[in-house]
Amino acid sequence: MYRRLDDSMGVAGQLMPDELQAIADAGYRTVINNRPDGEEAGQPSTEEMALAAKAAGLDYHAIPMGQASMTETMIDATVKVLRRADGPVLAFCRSGTRSTLLWAVARARLGDAPATLFERAGGAGYDLTPVRSLLTPE
């Protein structure tokens, strides 16, 4: 269902509202939704996911990221959520890739070494090459 990037972060493909209680039961405390509404037929809305997260006792954040865009606003919002999270975070998008890329850039801004981020993402089956230039200080 999800892949762990480290002890405080996991990523997943599309989650459904009825899965959020199991996510909470697995120890996650925060969910980040990185999918824009209406990206795919049958996808639950941000509102549906927020209500289900609340019912499961999860902190919920929508930080939608389209297929080809990552903005400073998204990065800053992710940094803010990661800093304030009271326990493990699970981020999701269609496949987990965008969530992983956004997590890596946010963690780099928080001071994590690029080599460590590449290792963690690679261990979960994700490639950070598309954001390599954003992981190192200018």
From TrEMBL:
Transmembrane parts of this sequence: none
Source organism phylogeny: Bacteria, Pseudomonadati, Pseudomonadota, Alphaproteobacteria, Sphingomonadales
Keywords on record: Transferase
Gene3D superfamilies: Protein tyrosine phosphatase superfamily
Any GO molecular function: transferase activity
Protein name: TIGR01244 family sulfur transferase
Domain called Beta-lactamase hydrolase-like protein phosphatase-like: residue spans: 2-108
A Pfam short name: BLH_phosphatase
